[in-house]
């Protein structure tokens, strides 16, 4: 993690709260930004937004102290490895590949309970939830994680374990085989 932070020119002593995805209305990134700004000890944290969106919105986010907006990148993994906490504040999702990738990198996740996310994140086991468009509660959840390394470690470990088990290629192939068998052979 420290090596990844140094590579991105982020002070390794800072805790990095991150998001990966489009900066758009439905992704609700402004709620994350507002929650971040409410956190105490701003000199000890950094908000890392990996993605791009409307120029005026991105420029406003870049003006916020301790906030970095990368624009579009091809190497998302480098940024995920530098994060300490991942947030998916979206108003709507299907599966959320970004959240799955964050979990596969062993990050504790805080997300809204939308789309398929609610099926693979288990509250207090491999992640935390917050209500949509509620920066106050998101800020409280972020502070809870920032102040509790044991909880961060537990959620991160279980997030990685969830992805390794539930989303492995072998498991996915077996699911597809069962569906095809049922569909075509009535088994």
Describe the secondary structure blueprint for this structure.
Blueprint: H1 2-7, E1 15-20, H2 29-38, E2 45-50, H3 55-62, E3 67-69, H4 76-82, E4 85-88, H5 97-104, E5 109-111, H6 117-120, E6 128-129, H7 135-146, H8 149-166, H9 169-185
Parallel strand pairs: 1-2, 1-4, 2-3, 4-5, 5-6
Helix pairs in contact: 2-7
Q: Strands across the major sheet, in which order?
A: 3-2-1-4-5-6
Helix content: 40-55%
Question: What's the number of helices?
Answer: 9
Q: What integer is the average pLDDT?
A: 95
Spans where pLDDT lies below 50 across 5 or more residues: none
Structural class: alpha/beta
> What's the N-to-C terminus distance?
47 Å
Instruction: Report the sheet-strand fraction.
Output: 5-15%
Kindly provide the radius of gyration, computed on alpha-carbon positions and rounded to a whole number of angstroms: 17 Å
Largest sheet: 6 strands, parallel
Could you say which overall geometry the principal axes of the C-alpha atoms support? Answer: globular
Overall strand count: 6
N-to-C order of helices and strands: HEHEHEHEHEHEHHH
Short overview:
This protein has 187 residues and is α/β, with parallel strands linked by helices. The protein is 48% helix and 13% strand. It starts with a helix and ends with a helix.
Written description of the protein model:
With 187 residues, the protein is of the alpha/beta class. The chain contains nine helices and six strands; from the N terminus they run αβαβαβαβαβαβααα. It has a six-stranded parallel sheet, sandwiched between helices. The radius of gyration is 17 Å and the shape is globular.
